[in-house]
Amino acid sequence: MMSSSTGTEDKGSLREIKAESSLTARVRESIRQAIIDGSLEPGSLHSVKSLADIFKVSRTPVREALIDLAGADMVEFERNRGVRILETSVHDLEEILVLRILLEVPATHRAAQRIDAAGLEELRQEMDAMVEASEEGDEPTLMQHDRRFHELINTASGNTRLTEYVDSLRDLILTRGVSTVDNTRSLSEIVDEHEVIVAALASGDADAAASAMKRHLVNTASLMLEQEGGRSSSLSLGWEDLVTG
């Protein structure tokens, strides 16, 4: 029979759980990055043991990390086989892009009414970094700051869950490896689209900010889907019908 827990034992258990949780988070991030950069190829099948061996950790944090990633639709468990890395289809891509428009445009409208001077300064810092990356032709760095730019706006809307969900949607887009740069638009054009959003937010014009965000996201979505073989016929709404503004 197990003895009752003492105060000392409770503290020890809490420390152990905290350490394990931290390890799980690190393993999750490593697997997530490997999926995004293609090190773990879409469609490939892996066992928890094989991944644990790669990371040189026990199976528990790997299993917990994979459960979390399964909830984000990045992997799928297959009974008695392991875990499969999921590929984002063109249809999935369109649904993801539609969700971003539906969520981020109203969030931008609300952010324009709530953002403070410190928030605007953070946005301008991200813009400065994007301009610098654009001038250097550094797409990966520009996209990192682009992601942070959108995160700041979504956070300013006051909806933390929305911010986290949109960020997970961006992960699914990245697994597709699609870009709208070069043949479709330049880095400087991407920067220009963001400049309009910042200007509207700074002026406190919620309608203009939402409209600028909508134009940016619709343009991005249209170019991505064009590159990936056209729009899915299963979604009948035109981009202009998704949200007002």
Summary tags:
245 residues; mainly alpha; Arc Repressor Mutant, subunit A; 4% strand
Query: What overall geometry do the principal axes of the alpha carbons give?
Result: elongated
Q: Could you state the CATH homologous superfamily of the largest domain?
A: GntR ligand-binding domain-like
Kindly report the spatial arrangement of strands forming the biggest sheet. Answer: 1-3-2
First-last Cα distance: 65 Å
CATH class of the largest domain: Mainly Alpha
Tell me the CATH topology of the largest domain.
Four Helix Bundle (Hemerythrin (Met), subunit A)
Mean pLDDT: 83
Order of helices and strands: HEHHEEHHHHHH
The amount of helix comes to 55-70%
Which architecture of the largest domain would the CATH scheme give at its second level?
Answer: Up-down Bundle
Major pleated sheet: 3 strands, antiparallel
Number of strands: 3
Low-confidence stretches: 1-18, 232-237
Discrete helix count: 9
Number of domains: 2
Determine the structural class based on helices, strands and strand pairing: mainly alpha
Q: In percent terms, what proportion of residues is strand?
A: under 5%
Rg result = 21 Å
Explain what the structure shows.
- With 245 residues, the protein is mainly alpha-helical.
- The protein has nine helices and three strands; from the N terminus they run αβααββαααααα.
- Strands 1-3-2 form a three-stranded antiparallel β-sheet.
- Strand 2 (75-78) and strand 3 (82-85) form a beta hairpin.
- The termini are far apart.
- Residues 1-18 and 232-237 have low confidence and may be disordered.
